[in-house]
Amino acid sequence: MNKQMYDLAAWSIKTAKTAGADDCRVEISSRRFVEISYRQRRPETIKEASTRNLSIEIYVNHRYSRQRTSDLRKDALKDFISNAIVTTKLLAEDPYRMLPDPKYYNGRANIDLGIRDANYEKLTPESRHAMVKAIEDISLAKGGEKVISVTAIGSDAHNESVMLTSNGFEGYKEYTEYFAEADITVQDEGDRRPNGYHYVTSVKKEGMPSSEEIGTIAAKRTLDLLGGKKIKTETLPVIIENKVVPLLLDGLLSPMFGGNIQQKQSFLADKKGQKIASDHLTLIDDPFIIGGLGSRLYDGDGFAAKRRVMIESGVLKEFFIDWYYGRKLDWEPTTGEPSNLVIPPGNRSVEEIMRDLGRGIFVADFIGGSSNSTTGDTSIGIIGHLFENGVPTQAVAEMNIADNHLKFWHKLIEVANDPWVYESQRTPSLVFTDIVVSGA
């Protein structure tokens, strides 16, 4: 625990209570962030910032507000808190706003989540520049004469936060983040200029792949887009690549949140215990993955983190219900936000699956699109490859998939063995059958 941050948070709670707050929650956060980008073989941007903020949630006379400041001097904070309480008293009453029952704070795991890099302070400006410069150099070399431009980006951050409440919660979190990306534009036929990319994130430097791997994959993914065309509208098997599955999955997750359920904007509100997908879909919210980007011991309400099976063999088991919406719905709260979302991997590689499917489309990226959390209707543009007997035969672009989530997920026939570990959503590639792909 950072004693300085803890003491200031405790002082802020005492100050708020003395000034007339019934209850309050205080979070103090600190972040050091560095970002470097290279373009045309020279630095394009260099950013470095250190920030500290205090956020206070005030409960007074059945009214609620949340306010934030970066001025952490006690004299300034005293005025800030006093003014915040006066402002809160002017708001409309909301009988559902109150701090959680402290029983939900109990049972917190006592484990090291491995989300802080002990070597973070050893990073140097030279090593940061060398990594990003190498990503650009390799992207240019592997992309060859077709490359119009490359932007390479690298960033890292160190974060700390302390959260206290007036009814007994105390929490501390410290973690590091690393990010690297190569973004490449190439010249295609006519005026087409396909843009491809590859990115990775990790809580530790040792979890990052090499600059050579990042640049090589980014170049290959971009060159694979050359010659992309529409094909005729056809019903085909579709493989959605691991790293883009979260973009599709978001349309299924949105109606699982308490806010959408309470506001009658969820097509899943009455589906708990029912089959909403094929047997191949299991979705686990696991906050205890060592080194996971979403790993945590408690959530924003202070609830002790728990591993939850949200969907099991296609059956909807749980919702994301925070304290506030749990009270409004008169439902038992679970948690208000996911941690690490995991779809357990299957046994076969994408290449093996493609060979058995015959003719189909491998989706490498989505473009635009929308998903209606009330009806489940979704439509999204796709980029990828047509394949025949496991062999890519043509890049496809400017095509579209439209369906309803309650139908679409029943078409899931297999899960590949390639979970994407560079996000908090750890998703393998997913295989669907009988998908109408709209084109020419």
List keywords for this structure.
PmbA/TldD fold, six-stranded antiparallel β-sheet, 17 strands, 22% helix, five-stranded mixed beta barrel, 440 residues, alpha+beta, 3 domains
Descriptive account of the structure:
The chain is 22% helix and 36% strand. With 440 residues, the protein is an alpha+beta fold. It folds into three domains: 3-35 and 47-105, PmbA/TldD fold (2-Layer Sandwich); 120-223, PmbA/TldD fold (2-Layer Sandwich), CATH 3.30.2290; 228-440, no CATH class. The strands form three sheets. A six-stranded antiparallel beta sheet has the order 3-2-1-4-5-6. The longest helix has 19 residues, at 125-143. The radius of gyration is 24 Å and the shape is globular. The termini are far apart.
Question: Brief overview, please?
Answer:
With 440 residues, the chain is of the alpha+beta class. The protein contains nine helices and 17 strands. It folds into three domains: 3-35 and 47-105, PmbA/TldD fold, CATH 3.30.2290.10; 120-223, PmbA/TldD fold, CATH 3.30.2290; 228-440, no CATH class.
